[in-house]
Amino acid sequence: MAFDFWRRYLDGIPEYLARHYWWAYLSPRGVWFFDHAPIINLILFGQYRAILNEVMHRYATRESPRTLQLTCAYGALTPTLALSANTRELHVTDVAGIQLSSAESKLQAISRSAKLARMNAESLAYASDSFDSVIIFFLLHELPGAARERTLNEAIRVLKPGGHLLIAEYGENRGIHWLHRCTPWRGFQEKIEPFLRDFWHSNLAEQIAGHAIRQGKPLQAMAEVSLFDGFYRVLEYRV
Ligand SMILES: C[S@@+](CC[C@H](N)C(=O)[O-])C[C@H]1O[C@@H](n2cnc3c(N)ncnc32)[C@H](O)[C@@H]1O
Questions:
Q1: pLDDT tens, N- to C-terminus, the chain (239 residues)
Q2: Residue 225 is assigned to a structural domain of this protein
Q3: CA distance 197 to 190
Q4: Ligand 1 midpoint to CA 139 (Å)
Q5: Cα–Cα distance between 20 and 32 in angstroms, integer?
Q6: Which domain holds residue 75?
Q7: 200: CATH
Q8: 185 alpha carbon to ligand 1 midpoint, in Å?
């Protein structure tokens, strides 16, 4: 049936991703359209470079023999990580083959390589304590609550003791930012991003701390950098 057409993308893809984000991450036209710097910058209200620079600035403060980019992202994150003097072995995972192909093309264009693997972030096929850094760039707000919890748990599990966790995301919605107060815009964004509302009102720092405690890993919050007056943030932890 017409309203079920997203099912054609279900090929090892979680239902929430195929149903709600097929147009952004799974359809070849969507991937072609969105993966352009001006489009990404527009979606992020002109903040793309500032967010990426903040992530890379924090990434560069620690040695990272083994780095995991937990899911692909449009734009320059993968090539920038691959070119960083800090990176020795870069792993990039995503559940969508089309996204991994796109990441591979970006790496080929700069003559760099990474270990690309197709897997669900909720259940990673990596050993515990096996990465020095894990980077999660605007993934969490796109996941339903339970999937988000499993993904955070996996990110902490695969980090070595003393490992570096970096998260770029939307800030909490405290009803202060003009974009949070703009009802038509907020309604539109919550419509196209169905898990954003829950994310906006959840306590991410508390969730991360809870997973670390349950895994017996001491967690140190190193920084929470607010960008665009708190609409975005970059979180840095030592696990
Ligand atoms: C990391 S977010 C990035 C969003 C952001 N707008 C960007 O591109 O900068 C989107 C990616 O996450 C992937 N993804 C979503 N849910 C996933 C899951 N459960 N496991 C692995 N990858 C997932 C999608 O396939 C997509 O490539």
A1: 567 889 989 989 999 999 999 999 999 999 999 999 999 999 999 999 999 999 999 999 999 999 999 999 999 999 999 999 999 999 999 999 999 999 999 999 999 999 999 999 999 999 999 999 999 999 999 999 999 999 999 999 999 999 999 999 999 998 889 999 999 999 999 999 999 999 999 999 999 999 999 999 999 999 999 999 999 999 999 99
A2: yes
A3: 6
A4: 5
A5: 18
A6: 45-238
A7: 3.40.50.150
A8: 23
| Amino acid of residue 9 | Y
**Is residue 27 a part of any domain in this protein?**
no
Structural domains counted in the chain: 1
Q: Is residue 12 part of a domain?
A: no
User: How far apart are the CA of 120 and the centre of ligand 1, in A?
Assistant: 10
Q: Which residues line ligand 1 (CB under 6 A)?
A: 14, 17, 25, 71-75, 94-96, 99, 120-122, 137-139, 142, 147
Residue type for position 22: W
- Find tokens 């096996």 and name the residue: 130
Strand 64-70 relative to strand 131-137, pairing: parallel
Residue 25 forms part of a structural domain: no
Which sign, positive or negative, has the C-alpha torsion 70, 205, 122, 4?
negative
Give me the half-sphere count of Cα atoms (radius 13 Å) on the Cβ side of residue 54.
20
